[in-house]
Amino acid sequence: MSRLIDPTLLRTLTAVMRSRSFSRAAEQLGLRQSTVSQHVQRLEAQLGRRLVARDTHSVAPTPEGEAVLGFARTVLDAHERLERTLAGGTVRGRLRFGASEDFVQTRFAEVLRDFRASYPSVDFELSVSFTQLLAEAVERGDLDLFLGKRRVGEAQGLLVRRDRLVWVGLPSALPERDEPVSILSFPAPSVTRSIVLEAFARESRAWRITCTCASLSGLRAAALAGLGLMVQARSLIPDGLQELAVAELPRLPDVEFILAGPGLHREPSRTLAHDILHADIWD
Question: Of 183, 171, 179, 111, which is closest to residue 147 (Cα–Cα)?
């Protein structure tokens, strides 16, 4: 290749693929949508390959785009490690961070571990709860930043990723056609719980809650025991469980993961927000 690839172009491509949208990638990166399109076009021209397949309804990587994404993550990770090294751990202060229960079984812990290792002078506090409770903590001034969920169309926070909610469990837990669906659910005020109950009401489908638990680990254990079905983002399906695409189950919408709080605009929260936006939590 005649010249090096600008990491900015790789970062833009990664954001487009993560959010499956040029407009949402622009929001995430703080750019105009036209700039995002230009970045992708420049990268495609430089590589001589079509990387993104797009139409009026969807955005997806081509096979060549998938291959480039793998290399892009490696390049961006090395680039950010270099930036941290040159920064010399200058980020300091107190960071009170909240995370939705959805992330406790993902690679999110690695992001926090790397952040703490890179910035040992930051006084870090972590809270795990539901999005509404985390948002209320921000309002009270008890949190600086949180990673949570919102419904599609809501404006709260900065978009990190959009994903499809799916039914999850063991095939043996699927109900017969005329039986109520056994649900494993977080308690109120869970965003996912509200969406699920609204889906049942919309389709007039019988249901019953067979397990209520504030812990994702507890819901996973109930699902592995065959007590019922749970709903989770497709990219966050717990180990040992599988997506159950059954026509008789209520249809579910997309959900969006967001970063929110005053810390988006100040250190040290801003640095952690940057790390989360560019991490492979869902892979």
Answer: 111
- Indicate the residue type of 262: P
Query: How far is it, in rounded angstroms, from Cα 189 to Cα 256?
Result: 17
CB of 123 within 8 A of CB of 95? yes
Q: Which of 225, 213, 253 is nearest to 104 (CA)?
A: 213
CA angle 175, 177, 178 (to 5 degrees): 95
C-beta separation of 165 from 213 below 8 A: no
Model confidence, pTM: 0.73
Q: How far apart are the first and last CA of the chain?
A: 28
Q: What is the pLDDT of residues 235-263, one digit of tens each?
A: 899 999 999 988 889 999 999 999 999 88
Amino acid making up residue 72: A
pLDDT digits (tens, 9 = 90+) for 170-205: 999 999 888 999 999 999 999 999 999 999 999 988
Measured distance CA(222)–CA(98) in Å, rounded: 25
Residue 154 to residue 188: CA distance in whole angstroms: 19
Total residue count of the chain as it appears in this document: 283
Interhelix angle for 269-277 vs 108-118, to 10°?
A: 140
User: Cα separations (Å) of 183 from 13, 206, 229?
Assistant: 38, 11, 5
Cα–Cα distance measured from residue 206 to residue 176, given in angstroms and rounded to the nearest whole number: 11
